[in-house]
Each structure stands twice: as structure tokens, then as C-alpha cells.
Amino acid sequence: MNLEKIRNIAIIAHVDHGKTTLVDGFLRQTGIFRDNEMLQDCVMDSNDLERERGITIIAKNTAINYQDYLINIVDTPGHADFGGEVERVLNMVDGCLLIVDAFEGPMPQTRFVLRKALQQNLNPIVVVNKVDRPNINPHDAIDKVFDLFVELGANNEQLNFPYIFCSGLKGWATTVENEEGVNLNPLLDLIIKHCPAPVGNIEEPFSMRINILDYNDYLGRIAIGRVFNGEINAGSSVVLHTSDNKKIRSRITKLFTFHGLKKIESQNASCGQIIALAGFNQCQIGDSITFNEDTPPLDRIEVEEPTVKMSFLVNNSPLAGTEGKYVTSRNLKDRLYRELETNVSLRVSDTDNTDTFLVSGRGELHLAILIETMRREGFEFQVSRPEVIFKEINGETCEPFERLLIDVQDEYLGPVMQELGQRKAEIINMESTGKQAYVSAMIPTRGLIGFSNIYIRITRGNGVMNHTFEEYRKYCGDLNFKRNGALIAYEAGVATSYALEQVSDRGVFFIRPGTKVYAGMIIGENNRPQDLEINICKTKKLTNMRSSNQEVLVHLTAPIEMSLEDSLEYIASDELLEITPLNIRMRKFNI
Length: 591
Fold this sequence. Notes:
By secondary structure, the chain is of the alpha+beta class. 21% of the residues lie in helices and 32% in strands. It has 4 domains: 3-194, CATH 3.40.50.300; 207-290, Elongation Factor Tu (Ef-tu), domain 3 (Beta Barrel); 391-474, Alpha-Beta Plaits (2-Layer Sandwich); 486-588, CATH 2.40.50.250. Strands 19, 20, 21, 22, 23, 29, 31, 33, 34, 35 and 36 form an 11-stranded mixed beta sheet that branches. The radius of gyration is 27 Å and the shape is globular. The mean pLDDT is 85.
């Protein structure tokens, strides 16, 4: 295919700024779907967790035809915890669309994804999205984006970025502010004009890097990547260069190109195209496929190291093995190491205990998604509290710091600032409009663990918080905060309304009447700093005497619903989180 007629572009943005919705518009308006075909929103978010949470977790690619051009589009995650997905797919493209919300402007994770794009020497096209909303200032958003480019050290060509106004939801784009467009053609024209064609030499031997892995029950593992040089035919014999410098010769059993959401079987492909190859059962992300053993492999993908770690343990609670399908250490180990094949920013290592594995990731959400995925697959296990990973840099102990952006009502600003002070946050900027306050701060990652729940309580659910990893800095000392003690079940049984009412003044509960409990299980939070064991299984004594309050109903305060992320942030260093397909339970480690 003519290189000049190919465009490879990634869509990057802060989470929930409209990347996937914009891709929906491209697919609808370029004839990918039939007119009578039933369509769903965020069609690229094929993962159940992505649809439930409304975020992109795994990078995916699609292709559209516009005029006589082939445009390969890669949809990337917006959350910094999935930055490994962004880093590995930016190697496939020659340009990118930076999506910015017209109301919010650049956010912390906009900084993260933009920095990665600039490091790849990409020239972004800025798309000011959601301009159909009221009370927006698109040019203010553009000014802030320009300031961010300058701050991140963009060169003159990158600073001279083109921009366009867009409504991904309504499916139009325009170069004129305050003027509603007709369709997305102006944006597609801008892509063709400003995104360079891929560079490659069709005369050189074939070479490609694996950036994405897929799987098919009939074909096995499928390697997806961009062809950098040469051309390839289905059935050709090629060489796989692995991470341990092995050279494995194999035959391409199937070759696919992309059209919309489908893989189209093809007989050949050439440099500049994004293709999928079957026939390599040992391939990993970052491996290269070349024409022969003498063709040098491409540089491996460089991904930033993890910043947070936790232990994954075999479940040994009193209810172990009653709710899960995969419960042994062998099951757990096989599943964790299998995750390494596609999750490039994850690390797994064995420990001295054969039932415990150390798992490191880019953040709490990164690890929480893995945990949730495993429990839905039927795994039962335990995890410890997340801990940051310290590094020795120039002889000094350093820890990860994150950039925190807070949007809060003025009336809650005082308590929020007090809490940030206890967590060693350094305030960079603070603005107030009289009703709303905007705070930008640098805070150690340790200080963010457990902060989300407290922030929601302080602001009564009215505050907005975003954060992203910034850099490693010198260790800032111990943090001056501590949660209250836990309410711990005294014996095994079923929680009763009568028992819960008797101890309702002790604190707040995480369980309801009828919940199965065991000794050592955390059932609530104490009003005081120390832990407290209570009996919540006792029932009312029956007598043959009629009581004056016999018919009085028990009124209980609604318990706090603890999600997986809430529980991970809540548990202390001497506590564990029990994960099963049916339940999430907190328990003391030493009981």
C-alpha cells in the first residue's frame, strides 16, 4: 500500500474527556456500520469492567477509510495507572490527537499522556471536546494547553499545534468557535494534513514490533504491531526475537489487517500498516519479528517502573475454599505470571513463602483492576495493604510523588487543607472563586493511600480529585495521620439485628444483618483509636413472659458499602483483604 495514503494516530487524553466517544463518531460516519445496525456507545470498550467503570483500561486499535486514505486509530487509556498501555502503543503511531475537555481544561493525567507523546517526538493535534456544553471557555482551555506544552519542554514545532473544536457526543467538529459543525470531516481532514505518513523502506527486510497481544481459540496467540520495514506474505517463514535473545523461526499461519472493529484476512502487508499475525505461541509484548536471523530486532518498549506493591496470598481464612473455583497456590501463581504476557507495566516475583507472591503495579487502580478481573474468573485469594516502592537514587532514599488536583467547595477547603498537611502535601497553586476552590499540590504516594475515602467524607461527596505520578523525590519522613481502630467479630456465625443494635454506639459498620462472619473478621470502624472485639452473633433470649417492648422494631443505621478500592485503602499493615467471587472481606492478619 502507498505509504503516503496511510495515517497511524493515537487518541490520548485525561480519563473521561471523550476519547472513546470520539472514536464511535469516526466509526459511524465512515461507513463501518450498516445503516440498520444496532450500535452501542463506547463500542471500543469491549471489556465488562471498562463498560461498568466508564474508563478505557486496555489499548485497542481500529481502522477507517476516509477518501482514499487508511487511518489506523489507537484508543488509549486516560488513567495514569494504565500508563504502560499508553507507552507501548505510542511506538506504533506517527501522530496523536490530544483531547481536552472544554470546561475542565488540562487535568493531571493530561500532563502524563502528553509528556509521553512529546517524548516520542509526536506532534499532537489538540481537540477541544464537549464544546456543546454550557459555561465553557474553549480558548482558555487552549491557553492552558499551550502553557502545559511549554512546561513539558515541547519544541517549536510541537508548540505550533493545530487545534479544532469538537462535540464527540453529537459527532461534529469545526474550526470556528461558537459555530456548530455538521460532521467530523474537518477533524479527519486535519489528521490527514498534520499527521505525517509513516516512515519505512519497502526494499529492506521485513521487521515489526509486537505492541498488542490478542488470543483466538483456533489460532492461539495473535501478535499485533506496525510493520516498520519491508513487506510480508501469509505463509512466510520469519524469525521471532524474544526478550532473552532467543531467535525462534516460525511460519505465519494467518495474516490480518484491520477494518473497523474487524480483522480482515489478507495475503500480504507492507511497511506502515498495522497488522495481526498468527503462528507465534511464545511471543510477548516488545518482541520483534523479522525476515531472518540476520535482521536486527527493533528496540524493546521502555516502560516506567511500578510505584506500588502488594502481596497476593492463598486464602487461609475460616471460609477458605467455599466460594472460589481456583484456590491453590499453583492456580494463583499461574494466573499472575500469565498476566505478565499482556500487562507490560506489572511485575510479579516469588517470596520465601510458597503461598505468597509480590505483585507491583503503577497504582492502586492498576492492581485493583487485576484483582477484580481475577475474582470474576473464579479465583479466591487474599491481598495485603498497598505499599509504595522506595528507590535508592544518588545514595538517598527516594519515594514516588504525585501531582494532585482538587476541586472543592470553599466551605470544605479548611478541613481538606488540614488533611493534606498531615500527609506532607506541598501546595503548588490555589485559586478561589468565592464558592469553589481549586488546589494543585505535590503529595507523596503514601499520603494518597486512604485519602480518597476521607476526602469524600470531608466534602460530603461534593469534591472532585485527580492525581497522577510525577517523579521520585527524597523521602519526606513519617506521615502524621492514623485511622480509627477496627470493630472485629468475636466469634463465627451470622450477624443479627439484635446484636448490631446493642453495639451500634461503638462505631460504624460495614456489614448487614444476615452476613456470615468469623472470628477476626473486620466488620466496622471503632469510634476510638484502638481495635475492639465484639459479639454480633448473639440473639435475644426467649422467655415465657410477655415483654412490654416485645413488638418494638430494631432500627439500624445503614452500613457503609465498601468497594474493592475502598477496602484496599482502608486496611492497615496488619490486615488482609479476602477476595472471592462472591464477597470481599477484611480480616486481621494475626488471627
